[in-house]
From TrEMBL:
<dbReference type="GO" id="GO:0008810">
    <property type="term" value="F:cellulase activity"/>
</dbReference>
<keyword id="KW-1015">Disulfide bond</keyword>
<protein>
    <recommendedName>
        <fullName>AA9 family lytic polysaccharide monooxygenase</fullName>
        <ecNumber>1.14.99.56</ecNumber>
    </recommendedName>
</protein>
<feature type="region of interest" description="Disordered">
    <location>
        <begin position="224"/>
        <end position="328"/>
    </location>
</feature>
<keyword id="KW-0560">Oxidoreductase</keyword>
<dbReference type="InterPro" id="IPR049892">
    <property type="entry name" value="AA9"/>
</dbReference>
<keyword id="KW-0624">Polysaccharide degradation</keyword>
<dbReference type="GO" id="GO:0005576">
    <property type="term" value="C:extracellular region"/>
</dbReference>
<dbReference type="GO" id="GO:0004497">
    <property type="term" value="F:monooxygenase activity"/>
</dbReference>
<comment type="function">
    <text>Lytic polysaccharide monooxygenase (LMPO) that depolymerizes crystalline and amorphous polysaccharides via the oxidation of scissile alpha- or beta-(1-4)-glycosidic bonds, yielding C1 and/or C4 oxidation products. Catalysis by LPMOs requires the reduction of the active-site copper from Cu(II) to Cu(I) by a reducing agent and H(2)O(2) or O(2) as a cosubstrate.</text>
</comment>
<dbReference type="Pfam" id="PF03443">
    <property type="entry name" value="AA9"/>
</dbReference>
<keyword id="KW-0136">Cellulose degradation</keyword>
<keyword id="KW-0119">Carbohydrate metabolism</keyword>
<feature type="domain" description="Auxiliary Activity family 9 catalytic">
    <location>
        <begin position="20"/>
        <end position="217"/>
    </location>
</feature>
<dbReference type="InterPro" id="IPR005103">
    <property type="entry name" value="AA9_LPMO"/>
</dbReference>
<keyword id="KW-0503">Monooxygenase</keyword>
<keyword id="KW-0964">Secreted</keyword>
Amino acid sequence: MKFAFSAAAALAFIQPALAHYRFTSLIGPDGTVTGAYEYVRQNTNNNSPVENLQSTDMRCNVGADSGSGTSTMEVAAGSTVGFKADQAVFHPGPYALYMGKAPEGTTAAEWDGSGSAWFKIAEKGAIIGDGTFEFDTTMTEYTGTIPSSVADGEYLLRIEHIGLHSAGAPQFYISCAQIKVSGGGSASPATVEIPGYVSISDESLSLSIYYPVPTSYDVPGPAVFGGDGSSSPAPSSSAATPASSSAAPPASSSAAEPASTSVATSPSSSAAPAPSSSAAAPASSSSAASAPSSSAASPAPSSSVATPAPSSSAAAPATSSSAAAPAPTSSTCAKDGYNCCMDAYNACAAKANSAANNGGNVDFSACSSAKDTCVAGLARRHARQWSRQL
């Protein structure tokens, strides 16, 4: 007896797994990447961001209030730990690592992250050069050092990456791992409560990263805990931070992405032309490392796009277009499957991120439409194959 398995059903099943990145694995002190959700709490949010900044989901993501089924890793104070994502973090925006100490008598697995208990141990902001403002969009790993002076005990280690691709609508990509610290000291860092540590009105969250080109940037949230009872913010105009960030090669689902999202300015006395998804003028070199761009005179790579400067005549804000990015099809992806559709989507989204848009929001509609068409085509193809086998 055969049963009907429609392409729509296949698409509904596959779709949640395709799109955004998730921080699924803890990186231990020896650099070992642990299994997915072995030490990281699994959420019920699939790969969607948290967008309500007043929600308790800001702590460890949706459905991750406890970690009863999650292991807790023992680490020494002063160790370097971090997270690995399941694909490249392709949205432009800052990173931060937080620690929160579980209350006395409570394990990290039992704690829901409530109360004023969180402090920041690392951050990575924008790379700012001469007329350029960019974030690394190829990273798959981010690590930081546990201050050697923190008290022993069980903690939640929290990572957040904030997508700033749509002005005024920040997206938080969050995961929490469970760790037990030993060999520490007696420091008492200043702490914050989550939610409540950031506001949608904060300039670092509400700004447009494309136009006008920002000349400084402070990572949202409190200053980084310095380890000696003090807090030391990272320089706003530098990508140097207490964390060691990884520019490791992107995961297989993001191999086609550019090294960074870059914006540059060029003088003009006429009205700003409509943006294009291809490079329009020389700009500063994009960097996959965390060091600032060294020059605005070198030719721009394919991921860097020149943004026209404002003029005396008003130019309506435009939306960066993804229409020129390569579109995946079910025929070209027949062999490699759904990951092929996502690879092309990531490349398309990265190109849209880096396109000049004169103050508008980034338009991912062409990327999403092509991805949906590709996935639907594969789902129909697979449905036909499955029905023949039954």
